Structures are given as C-alpha cells and as structure tokens.
Amino acid sequence: MQFQLLKKSIIWVLCLLNALCFFIDGIMVQITPETMEGLRQALSEKKDFQITCGKVDSGDFREYVDICWIENDEKTNMRITSPIDGKSMEGVQSEKIVQEECFEVDGKLVKCTEVFYLSKVSELHNSVHQLAKEIALASYIALGKHLKTLKNNGMNKIGLRVSMDVDMVEYQAGSGGQVLPQHYLNDLDSALIPVIHGWISNTTSLPLEMELIFFINESLLI
After folding, report:
1. What are the CA-CA distances from residue 31 to residues 18, 61, 165, 209 (Å)?
2. Residue range(s) in the chain whose domain bears CATH number 3.30.500.40
3. Distance (Å, whole) CA 118 – CA 32
4. In a structure prediction context, what are the per-residue pLDDT tens digits for the chain, which is 222 residues long?
5. Does the pTM exceed 0.90?
6. What are the residues facing 74 on neighbouring strands?
7. What is the CATH number of domain 93-218?
C-alpha cells in the first residue's frame, strides 16, 4: 500500500472503537483521541502499536491495524566518501547542517553543510548537535584567511574528522584524499582545541567521532 492516513476524530460515535476504511492504494483509519494519544506515545518511544477497529459490541469480530518498526534495508550515503582519505560513508549516520552562520573573506565563502557521526550514536543529544556547530564556527575562523589559497589550489571541499574520548582528542583535516598542509592544521589547532576540551569536560557522550564537511565557494555578493 502506498499510504496510510490516520485521522483523529473529535466527535465520536460511542458504539465504535476505531474506524477503518480501505481505498485502492491505501487505508484511512479514524481513531479516538485516546488512541491517538497512545499512538503518539508509542511513536515517540519507537514501539510497535496496534489499533483495534470495529463496533464495541461486535463480539470477537475485530479488524486490526498494526504499526511496526522495521529495519531499514536501504543503505544510507551510498558511494559517499570522505575528502580526507576516501573512507566510505556508506551506512554512516549523518545530518545536514542548517545554520545561517558562514564566513566570507576576499570574495570566498566557506560553510559547513553536513556532519557524519562515525561512532555508533544511538541517540544524538542536543549537546552533540551544539558541538558540531561550535566546531564549524571555530573552523571558519581558522580557515578564513586561507580561503582564497585553498580554493585556488582546488581544495574547495574539506573534511574535518574529530575523535574524542575521556583521555584522547585528535582530528584530521583533508581534501581530495590528502591531509591539509601543516600550516593550515596549526591554525585549526588554535581554534579547535579550546572548543573540544571545553566540551569533553562537561559531557557523558563519549567516545565520539564525527566528520564535518565544508565547501568553499565564490560569494554571490561580489
């Protein structure tokens, strides 16, 4: 079936539990406010949920709609590789970065567009999202004065991989399968280390490894 439509009914006939209607390419289920509340709770907890449909006094005759969580068979990020070393990102959890902040110098603009979570993160806390944004902002400052050189040398897509644990912090930065030259890394050191160490001292979300993707483009405002 191509679609399922769930609709909460505010005015409900007392003799009905929940109503089920079939269409050519889907179903519509009208449910009571109580059932809707139970469904919302089940979805938030990622649990299976069963909706019982039919008349209250219909005896053993019931129709059921089962909402079940299944494994996603489709691989995410297929054929996506890291600009640092060509590491495959297939199956790696990722999210697009939506932030208004970017950095512009000499007609060149750098912006972080995506972050890949290389370590197994069962639940992404708000602090992890915030760390990714702070790392992106620190990287803007570190790379800002180098944007023109980086772009002219063909390094317009840059990966920054940060690995953290209780007693370990390291990062790699590269483009086109090559690590960035040392003078770029020195500037990244100065900008990133305070951010990362400040976060590690106040978190339990370790170990953590993420890779941020940056693009350097021509500014449209020039």
Report:
1. 5, 18, 47, 43
2. 93-218
3. 42
4. 344 445 444 334 444 566 656 555 567 778 888 888 998 899 888 889 988 877 666 565 567 888 888 766 566 888 899 999 999 999 898 988 876 666 888 888 898 999 999 987 655 667 788 889 999 999 999 999 999 999 999 999 999 999 988 888 899 999 999 999 999 999 999 999 899 888 877 666 788 899 999 999 887 654
5. no
6. none
7. 3.30.500.40
